[in-house]
Design brief:
With 199 residues, the protein is of the alpha/beta class. The protein is 28% helix and 25% strand. Helix 5 crosses helix 6 (144-153).
């Protein structure tokens, strides 16, 4: 797995063995092509970060500050190594359940871009290293997208003119949510990127 653009282009990332589903290179390239100049100087939040590829790519492409959230210990070790080796200080590596992180009243960061890659494409009952946590019963009932949109809407984590990007399975249903506008919906094989802004 390599960084596809910016100052770290071509650098390899450490990925923790089995159970990890990193965002494919072509999908990351497409993501940052769509975000374009918005990345430069931005505050970027990578949820369900895994080994940190998307957030590190944002830093490589000029993001001023990046935070990563991942709860799985194996993935977190790789994430820590990758960030400290490639990005140095000034960024936040957070070992936490994503739902708990988003509901924390202490967090009022105003991120310009929030990216989420929760687990998808896994059989029921099987865990994924990329899970990042959350209220299992609640997310099974509603799905990750409406839950994440609701939590972001009720917090100040996303800046007023910020963008929320959700990576999903190509066949996952896209639910509508009051308060949000879908600005782009792109498919890359079995992967789908959906871009949202507050309406």
């Amino acid at each position: 797995m390599r960084i596809t653009g910016g100052t770290l282009c071509g650098r390899r990332l450490r990925v923790p063995g089995v159970g990890v589903r990193p965002t494919q290179d072509k999908v990351r390239q497409a993501l940052f092509s769509i975000l374009g100049a918005m990345v430069d100087g931005s505050r970027f939040l990578d949820l369900f970060a895994g080994s940190g590829g998307v957030g590190i790519e944002a830093w490589s492409r000029g993001a001023e500050n990046v935070s990563w959230v991942e709860r799985d210990r194996r993935a977190f070790k790789a994430l820590e190594y990758n960030v400290r080796t490639l990005c140095g200080d000034g960024n936040g590596i957070i070992c936490s359940d994503v739902t708990r992180f988003l509901k924390s009243t202490a967090l009022r960061a105003g991120f310009d871009i929030v990216f989420a890659d929760p687990p998808y494409g896994v059989k029921e009952g099987r865990a994924s290293v990329r899970s990042g946590g959350g209220n299992k019963k609640n997310t099974e009932k509603r799905g990750w997208l409406p839950n994440l949109l609701a939590m972001l809407y009720c917090s100040d984590l996303l800046a007023e003119s910020g963008v929320f990007v959700m990576e999903m399975g190509g066949d996952d249903e896209l639910s509508e949510d009051d308060g949000w506008k879908l600005t782009a919906d792109k498919r890359y094989g079995d992967t789908r990127l959906c871009f949202f802004m507050r309406s």
